Amino acid sequence: MPTRKRQLPEIPPELVGTVHVTPLDRIYNWARKRSLWPMFFGLACCAFEMVGTFAARFDPSRFGMEIMRASPRQADLLIVNGTVTKKMAPQVVRLYNQLPEPKYVLAMGACAISGGPFKEGYNVVSGIDKFIPVDVYIPGCPPRPEALIHGFLTIHARMERESIRDLRWYRKGEEADTSVPVPELGPDLVDWRLTEQIEASQPEPVE
Length: 207
Ligand code: SF4
Known about the structure:
binds iron/sulfur cluster; elongated; Rossmann fold
């Protein structure tokens, strides 16, 4: 995102040292990046690295991130931390849609990024970015807490470059519908309710 340089007003000489002038975006982003609330949810083994990251040793309260919310309505960071099965993908998208704007997504680990060791398995999604927009990818199997923290810092750096004027959800008079369609179980996905129909449609085995 391009950073726009703005002309700041000059401070009268008698107020230098007393008054500090800065763009509203900077204050706003500074506050936002120090109060990013992740959602507490886990998919597979990577989730335990995330839990370890939020324990005392790594101390995410340094970044104002120690509050993990159990409800997507109260969080603004979704950490997709593990294997996304085709059965689980609709639920992950639904949770993403329930996060309030502005929201961010972090794909943690090889599974969330591409399916990882289970890639092209019959029941595994080859990357959550097939369904929802991902802001930061953290490779590894599993990534260490330091890598997850680096992902947090990358999101913070991205926030710093954002402007209230450019973000869609702050524009007046513009449709603010940012929801993405929830995928349905289809021919590509496993739907055990159709087992009998699938069996009936198979040709007779040749003797
Ligand atoms: S990337 Fe590795 S550690 Fe993470 S969920 Fe997949 S298999 Fe487990």
